[in-house]
Amino acid sequence: xxxxxxxxxxxxxxxxxxxxxxxxxxxxxxxxxxxxxxxxxxxxxxxxxxxxxxxxxxxxxxxxxxxxxxxxxxxxxxxxxxxxxxxxxxxxxxxxxxxxxxxxxxxxxxxxxxxxxxxxxxxxxxxxxxxxxxxxxxxxxxxxxxxxxxxxxxxxxxxxxxxxxxxxxxxxxxxxxxxxxxxxxxxxxxxxxxxxxxxxxxxxxxxxxxxxxxxxxxxxxxxxxxxxxxxxxxxxxxxxxxxxxxxxxxxxxxxxxxxxxxxxxxxxxxxxxxxxxxxxxxxxxxxxxxxxxxxxxxxxxxxxxxxxxxxxxxxxxxxxxxxxxxxxxxxxxxxxxxxxxxxxxxxxxxxxxxxxxxxxxxxxxxxxxxxxxxxxxxxxxxxxxxxxxxxxxxxxxxxxxxxxxxx
Amino acid sequence: xxxxxxxxxxxxxxxxxxxxxxxxxxxxxxxxxxxxxxxxxxxxxxxxxxxxxxxxxxxxxxxxxxxxxxxxxxxxxxxxxxxxxxxxxxxxxxxxxxxxxxxxxxxxxxxxxxxxxxxxxxxxxxxxxxxxxxxxxxxxxxxxxxxxxxxxxxxxxxxxxxxxxxxxxxxxxxxxxxxxxxxxxxxxxxxxxxxxxxxxxxxxxxxxxxxxxxxxxxxxxxxxxxxxxxxxxxxxxxxxxxxxxxxxxxxxxxxxxxxxxxxxxxxxxxxxxxxxxxxxxxxxxxxxxxxxxxxxxxxxxxxxxxxxxxxxxxxxxxxxxxxxxxxxxxxxxxxxxxxxxxxxxxxxxxxxxxxxxxxxxxxxxxxxxxxxxxxxxxxxxxxxxxxxxxxxxxxxxxxxxxxxxxxxxxxxxxxxxxxxxxxxxxxxxxxxxxxxxxxxxxxxxxxxxxxxxxxxxxxxxxxxxxxxxxxxxxxxxxxxxxxxxxxxxxxxxxxxxxxxxxxxxxxxxxxxxxxxxxxxxxxxxxxxxxxxxxxxxxxxxxxxxxxxxxxxxxxxxxxxxxxxxxxxxxxxxxxxxxxxxxxxxxxxxxxxxxxxxxxxxxxxxxxxxxxxxxxxxxxxxxxxxxxxxxxxxxxxx
Amino acid sequence: xxxxxxxxxxxxxxxxxxxxxxxxxxxxxxxxxxxxxxxxxxxxxxxxxxxxxxxxxxxxxxxxxxxxxxxxxxxxxxxxxxxxxxxxxxxxxxxxxxxxxxxxxxxxxxxxxxxxxxxxxxxxxxxxxxxxxxxxxxxxxxxxxxxxxxxxxx
Amino acid sequence: xxxxxxxxxxxxxxxxxxxxxxxxxxxxxxxxxxxxxxxxxxxxxxxxxxxxxxxxxxxxxxxxxxxxxxxxxxxxxxxxxxxxxxxxxxxxxxxxxxxxxxxxxxxxxxxxxxxxxxxxxxxxxxxxxxxxxxxxxxxxxxxxxxxxxxxxxxxxxxxxxxxxxxxxxxxxxxx
Lengths: 407, 637, 154, 175
Prior knowledge:
The complex is a heterotetramer.
Chain A: E1 2-6, H1 10-22, E2 27-32, H2 44-48, H3 64-67, E3 71-74, E4 78-82, E5 87-90, E6 95-97, E7 100-103, E8 107-109, H4 129-132, E9 134-136, H5 140-151, E10 156-159, H6 163-174, E11 180-183, H7 195-207, E12 211-214, E13 218-224, E14 227-233, E15 238-240, E16 243-246, E17 250-252, E18 267-268, E19 280-282, E20 287-290, E21 297-299, H8 303-317, E22 330-335, E23 338-344, E24 354-361, E25 364-371, E26 374-381, H9 387-396, H10 401-404
Chain C: E1 3-7, H1 17-27, E2 38-42, E3 47-51, H2 60-64, E4 70-72, E5 79-81, H3 91-95, E6 102-103, E7 110-111, H4 121-125, E8 131-135, H5 136-151
Antiparallel strand pairs in C: 1-8, 2-3, 4-5, 6-7
Chain D: E1 3-6, H1 16-25, E2 37-38, E3 46-47, H2 56-60, E4 66-68, E5 75-77, H3 87-91, E6 98-102, E7 106-110, H4 122-126, E8 132-135, H5 138-154, E9 168-169
Antiparallel strand pairs in D: 1-8, 2-3, 4-5, 6-7
């Protein structure tokens, strides 16, 4: 059996392990743009904060691929696909045949229109900061650049109030830098938290010295003789800063398979991680999967899903049988000492048997979103100890939540 | 093929070393597994002078090729070594669940050599071997040993094969006990284990067995099961066990009573399986692994002198040897004697036989009450029998003499006592009076381990069941040969049965499934083998493999010095008539036996004068290597 | 009529064919450690008792399962283990009062009896009649008759 | 393979487990460090790691700090690798992972390590009611329970009047 895995991060790696477990002798080739072995993107903000060293970013050691008997083509991009001929075309002109293909190309950072070319570039980062002073936070190089700038004491502007932006703000604050967080929405974390949680966290950030500006749009980057000098907001005002980090979320990188397999936002896959074309699998941030309620499909760019989906894909590719139980969107983070967890559905429509239950003690906050008698979502701030049991309740079908949150 | 056969695990007790080797493909095709592969290993690992109780005598446990699967009655384990009782070849087979557990641990055959410097037991946990100190359990009976080992290991669901005090004391008919009450009893394998300072072999297996062609194998197994359940004799076997036919055998005048002086007892009802059921001694039926009948018994005595006694059994042979054989008709005493044999780890056939022989000596004045330390060992004295059992196991007083087996005891006591020492090749005869069953007589005489029915069970010659009569007709061409008093065609009958029996043993099936009940035919065994291993084998080929096994076993004895004169029967059966069968044919006269032997050797292609297999015969069976070894030893004509 | 898997421990001879049949049906191999029904042996007393899922009215294994992996089939006729959800926490194993739930030694997920989806193999091979798949009324009738016979021996 | 079993019905909330765990793993005065927690109400009543075979906390760990020890089968935290992201807390259905302050480094994941330095979980050893149980593995646990159950069935007084063990195959309660 000849396996080709395009992209090795969380999903690709766990697929690799699953394949090797079931098929120790099959031919496995991995293709990845990075020249070094897989590293953890989730750890980048922790790296910036200094919680992990640069070497600890790597998920596997250099020897890993050789040890697993895997052919690794690093620093090469897969550019084309021929599902009928079962071939993958590489940027350097090589062509790889496959029996089973896993697409784990991940996601790229969203680049806003005002970002100068070469800034938060299309590989999800890159660009020469000395020239533009604008970067994303997607790759190791991005993180190194941000950390260097922060340590040099340059003021940093973070554009985007999502989880990455907030995590970066916290990381920089830990380094002693006072970052500014520019948020387009009226509140931070608007996609992953409810209003009250956002406000609690926003106030906490402010108390800790992070400047938060909500409801502001960036019009352009202000350039001066020494490079970037800040950003110009839509109302014309200028915020000074030497480094602008764009954290406007990510989108699946479907271009390799686009046009060949069914794609919505991400590559549509079944619970077995199969795409619409036989023997092509997808997993991780690029995949769009049924959710746990079986009500729709979702792209979920979170670590546990990626590694689990990778394992499922690998197992099925190697002839085993495994199923992914569905996407349950969730987030956990440490906001400068205050933990925050959210999961599932966060907004309760006014009609249709929805309601929410919330409890607040000081800065400790809990909110459950209930549909019928079933819990389908939760937000926890401060005391998050019950997050796991609540998640389990959601997975079990949502019943029994009263017992879980009993005072 | 490896997935169904398992590996060979070698254990050297002297060096405290264990290693695994895969079983060779061709060995499976030639010798099938179980008893066959055991014979092959023993032949390779021993020479003509191997001391049965020395460290070089390998003790080989072979689970059947099909043990552990759903094939009905497939739970047998064959133990093979050189016998300390006879000094000839020994294969002895036990039921229970131990062999299956070994298979689940990924091991088909366990070969134990050497001798530990102090008592040990082996703990085989899924193929990993540990040598554990057995000094704390040395001396314990089998039941206690089983519980202690399980406690020591910390898992009560494991399987233990153990010896009792009799094995520790090298009693020549000590057995190896599987699952507490299932014995590999005959020929003293327990003494070989004792001589190795090996108290027990505990096994846990959590693995799986996979047939090469699972669906076909499943189908074949289901077919076997249904065929067995349709057998006319099956229900009786299930309900009354082997002892269900005690009364029938007695009426056939084949029931060895009073140390074979008689072949019928006045009232055997108290010794019958029916009695055990009706009087409530039988508490439950017990099955070996994958058995559809459950002929093994469990009895308990809740009242009377022996209240509190509980044991597996008694089987027909036990009821015969401690019952009628010793003139005893006290069921409870027989059960008690059975319990003692089981927990002390002895063969009930030999043990009852040596006691019956002593009774006759006592009656005739060759053994006095003083020799017996005051024990009044009269016919029918049940309590004396029980006491004697204990003394034999612990080698106390005259028990020490009897523990060497009846042949050695007769030599020591002297006089004419050899005449009623009912043994051949040194093994006490099992409870069939062969004077009234000629195929049995021939089978017993040619049995490489001595006079008993577990080399070749020719039950069909009695013509008791329609299936048996049909089988005789198939072998001989006519149903009329289903008559135990006839001498004609006995060689054919014996040879067919011994081939079939060898295949049965090699696959790990119970002999009842193929040679006492007939549901598992050679054709079905060939089908099972083919589906299990993925190697197509025909009915003829598998029977030829059976003959290869039988011939190799014969060759072991030939290499060790056996000649035609060794193929004989006990003196009493060859020279004394039984009062219960006055007809002149009811004796295994030497001339008659000679005639049958001639036919038998010719049929096999063995030399008539020496009984040695000829070079052509060996070559035609693919035993060329064996032929060359024998030729080098000057044992080939 | 609603059928039950009824165990008559008295009749079990301990042949363990049920284990072989079960592991073959579910895993295609013969292995007691993969069998949903297990025969517990007390060998010194030659006693064997088949232990299999009791199909409790309020199954503790299902109640204790944090992920909903232990669940009934959609029509409620037999039990299931949803392997994609099982995290191997062994709660079910620990709470089962019969020891009838176990862990799959290879995949690390819980296994329990699914009645072969309504056609139990173990029953088919049990020649001793210790495992039967019958309406509860049949079991009760037999029990009643046995009791009556013991009161007034015929 | 360690397996810890919990029987909340037997828990009397004496909190001896917490105290023992505290003594074994914390006890330096920086607040409660116990890896087993008893709640006054709600579910789970007893929060303690079950050492799952495919542990969600380990699956979710972004820094590789939580791993299954292949020999002991226990799930272990390497606090030096932990970055304190709370993912494990979010995943554990038993609320068995908590964050404990590591001096100078902030909160880091903390959970039951099966008392590996003691060789046996102390909370289990000191649980007076059997609400906490441990065995060498789930296989052993179920084997033991199965034996106990079989013994109950088999040795019922008056064996012979079938103590018919019932097994249901039908939807819900019969009407």
